[in-house]
Amino acid sequence: MLAFVAWLFIALGVITALVIARDVIRRPQPMAIMNVTWPVTGLYMPIMGWWAYAKMGRAAPSQTGQTHAHDVSHGQETTHGHTHRHGDKPKWQGVFVSATHCGGGCTLGDVVTAPLATLTGFALLGSATLGHFVLAFVGAYLFGVLFQYLPIRAMSESGPRQALIDAIKADTLSLIAFQAGMYVWMLIAIHGWMGEMNAFSVTFWFMMQIAMLIGFATSYPANWWLIERGIKHAM
């Protein structure tokens, strides 16, 4: 029964991601990295990911090729060398989209490193689970900082060094919160019914879907705090 439910939700996640990706091709995002982030969000938010995208992130077809210039002149302001979107979203939605941005990098890092951890049997202190978690954190951190760095470089006058520093400031706390939520759930799953971290098991990826949703939830307050402090900006 668990395997059936796992296949069902993984299939729904893939379908949601593909539907969003198809729509993003027709309606490119003002911030290019979100063209990747929204489909990735669909992977761990089956069906709900489409609702979030349609309500908070979908661009109009007519904006293609002109969105960025329009936003810079009418919908954004430049502060400390960075261009930030205002938009008409309520604050909770801006924080939500910022959390998906963080989640996109974390998810890609986890997806890339999980098979590597299983294939190599990488362990730390004699624990394959700890080894898996450490590899996942490294991968998530690299992708997460990259997801912050690219838009900072594209939408501000910051040089490479300052953009990297700003990306690290903006992503570190939210990434730790995201990964911590994931790890707590995966530990519960391992000791409850999964048994081991096997990235070639359908149950593993179903548990990862749930873990990513929990990680998103635990990263939301961190993103809110970062935005309140002006370290990160609502999207």
UniProtKB/TrEMBL annotation:
Instruction: Please give the name of this protein.
Output: DUF4396 domain-containing protein
Question: What organism does this protein naturally occur in?
Answer: Chromohalobacter israelensis (strain ATCC BAA-138 / DSM 3043 / CIP 106854 / NCIMB 13768 / 1H11)
InterPro entries hit by this protein: DUF4396
Q: A Pfam family name for this chain?
A: DUF4396
Q: Where is each DUF4396 domain found? A: 92-232
Q: Where is the composition biased (Basic and acidic residues)?
A: 68-80
Keyword Cytoplasm: yes or no? no
Keywords, sorted A to Z: Membrane, Transmembrane, Transmembrane helix
Q: Which residues cross the membrane?
A: 6-25, 32-53, 130-152, 173-194, 206-227
